[in-house]
Target: Transporter
Amino acid sequence: MAATRLDRAAGFLAAALFFSYSVSPELKLGFALAGNFGAPLKYDNDWAGRYYVQSTTMLGLSLLPSIAFKVNDKLSLGSSLNAMYGMYTNQVAINNPAPIFGDGKLKLDDRTWGWGANLGLLYEIDEGTRIGLTWNSQVDLDFEGPAKFSKLSPGVATALNNAGLLNSTIKVGIKVPQQVMASVFTQLDPRWALLGSVGWQQWSKFGAIHIGIDDTSNPVSLTTDIPFKDTWHVATGAQYRLSDPWLLNFGVAYDSGFQPDGSTVSPLMPLNTAWRFGAGGQQQLSKTTVWGVAAEYIYGGTLKTDLQGTAPVALGGRGNLIGSYDNTGTLVMSVYGNWKF
Model:
């Protein structure tokens, strides 16, 4: 496969719901239903890297029953259970060397539950300044399902059967990274406030894998590990009180790369180091109702892919995938509301 410019585009709609109840001035209960991570990814069926990935979806939906307690005028503590429902699909083309058969397919599709916990601390230094510290535990999502093959040529089907792979089970263990985040808020004057945060995520244990066959003439495995590394996050921002009902928010953040080879990434996850630029505003409609809108642009720069197969495509291999994702970016738009009753 020759060097090429790689293209991908996707739209994804998500929603979240939050509820809180005041048991007393010191004790609060809450529940949240929110997306934790993930998005769908789909390439054209005939793209150059179809023997590495054609389409994939990794999604985590969290149910979060929570409790918070005000210890004193300065210190508040909170915790929640994280019941995460994971959804995973991955489809890849299988190389039938004889052109008359076209490409075969391999698909894995599974759903599972994982469990974790979140802890938080909020300390008020003075009337206008407070600091926060949160910890989110790792969540293990153990996906498992039969290898669903289709449209295999007789020769490839026989080779897979002789290797014990045709009716095998594929296991994909994904560990949603644990993370620690520290943040600060300070009110400078009645109009301006400054914010900042720094965090760490343990991506080195994420554990995602490619599925597929490196060489259909000599198949030995249906999976290949993808290495990752831990990341750091830093952000700064500000709030401006435009008027009594309107508050404006804006900021910038940087996330270090979780794929270890600098700008070289897997086509399964074509993202790495990222700059985030955000802006938004919220309006106080009444004493009980607030609504707001926000936008975030995530810039990932140009990312390269350089995967070397063990055999050329003409002989049943995946071939080499060498190319780039130029000027990658993601736009996130959100609308939210808060109603007290």
Notes: The chain has one domain: 4-339. Helices lie at 154-162. Residues 154-162 form the longest helix (9 residues). The chain has one helix and 19 strands.
